[in-house]
Amino acid sequence: MPKKTNFVVNEKDSVTTILQEGLEKGAKLEIKVGENSEFIELTDEVRYGHKIAIKQIKKGEKILKYGLTIGIANKDINVGEHVHIQNVESIRGRGDLAKGR
Amino acid sequence: MDKFWGYINPDGTVGTRNHLLILSSTIYSNGLAERVARSVYGAIPIIHPLGRAQTKSDIRFTFKTLVGTAKNPNIGGVVILDHFIEEGNTAEEIAEEVSKTGKPVEIINIRDSGGTLESTTKAIRAAMEIARKITLRRREEVPISKLLFGLNCGTSDTTSGLSSNPALGHCSDLIIAKGGRSILAELTELMGAEDWLASRAVNQGVADKIWKTIADFEQRILDTGEDIRGTNPTGDNIEGGLTTIEEKSLGAAKKSGTAPMQGVVDWAETPPNTPGVYLMATPGHGAESITGIAAGGSQLLVFSTGGGHTISHPIMPTIKVTGNPFSAGYMRDTMDLDVSDILEADLTIEEAGEMILKEVIEVASGKITKSEFLLEHNTGFAIHRIGMST
Question: How would CATH label the architecture of A6-89?
């Protein structure tokens, strides 16, 4: 069984985590979600442990991993694009932890 | 898979072990505890650097921890060792609490015995009497609803949040569905996951308590003048691919599955009997966290570790699970279970959760962990403290 190139934790997720080093821009990855599978083209060079979008994500939309919200897109993110600090903002800004409760 | 074989205690709790505990109440009886334990059959020593010259609040922490550890269902009988008389944590005070469970307890004081060698003789003789009693006990089949088990993670990496933590969460859900309870702890790792945990609370009171407990812990950190959140996620985390604090914390919190958050308990406090997940107020420090969980009465703990941890509590079997194939290889002598096929092959998170459940039932029924076999008694006991020494 070949090692997976990427892994989607939950069926609701909008991102997958890359599990191989050295994947280049243009590489086609098989994305498995439950029983379904589709191919996505990497539009960035992305390293092991980093995430790419598997759905079109609009600015202001939630990013889902583990089926849960891990942040908000601060610009539109295309399928196959690297999802990280350059296009995601934490909703848990400093100090809001105790306030608003 | 809805039963295990355990020791039914006089107070109705069920042990997954029937340990003879040699408990040092202060650092100054550690030497005696180690000497007694290594001289006799099947005894486990608990030693620590505290119990003397601590602030009042810290001595209460030490006392609660030692009492809770000795009351843990996995203990068949206890010999408590003491040297000085430290009000609030004397051997007599510990023994009074522990004897309420109905298990045999003996006290040996070094000075009162006439010195080191005399106390050694007395302690060994006391241990022998207890061992002769408790080794008569036999395991009986009990429902899994009798299980209170701990969830913890450490040396986490990319694989933890993707594989071993969600798999452990599924195992927790399966046990709770059969009437069991689990304990989630490590408050430092939950900053950013409050929303999700509170949304699973059984009522608004518990939801508020989840927010408050995590916020209070954060305040304690801020009060030291340190702001650990300023670097959370850390530079290494970001380099490794983690983007936000909620991504990091939710990856850790996933080990609690999806079952209802039933309540919040203090360090070393035993949760009520209602099935569900309980949040215990402990720091992220692995050994301190599992020490609090064991002192709260947990009979077993599953430790999820990407990087391959060596941690093991002295009296609470600590099953170590990894989702990282490299750790499963080079740390094979301490990893009890390998779920790396989640990322390497076609093992699903649900199937991996069932594998963990099977291991939990087997270990609860008497199968020893690798760390137990290697007599690693001192890699998982550390008492949390708040203040300075006096």
Answer: Roll (2.30)
